[in-house]
Amino acid sequence: MTAAFPADLVRNRIYVLRVHGAGADASVSVSGGTWEEGASVGTTPAPGGLIDPAASSLPEGVTLNAAQDSVRVDSRGGEFRLAVRAEAGTEVEIEGLVRGVTASVEPAARSFEPVATVAVSAGRRLPGESRAYLYLNIVRDGVRLGRIALLFEPNPVQ
What is the enclosing helix (H) or strand (E) of 11? Predict the structure, then answer.
């Protein structure tokens, strides 16, 4: 049994698959309807982990985005400390490898206070090196709840 969607899928349109069966006979029909207007539903993100800027040490050239889940490090590098806020019982794991960068996690303990401090030392990026990333995975019981990205910018000299 096969069914095909229309050749052109249009956004803000509802497509319905109907499967009909009577004994050994079965059929499928595809129909498109208009978008249903109604009350909007809002959600708020449930962050698995954020950087606490007040408790972190961010030198010149290291910036935090507005959502507090991404750190940009310019090509000059530097040494900095990131205070990671998350729910109690979570752990911070470092994922990735960047030449000239060392990072270590120092656990702490309290609810939605910094659960860990991450110490990062980044050397100056060499000419020709590309953009690189490290990730701080926020994990509880083997399940990743969130991720903080550290972006290391390339040297502008190619």
Answer: none
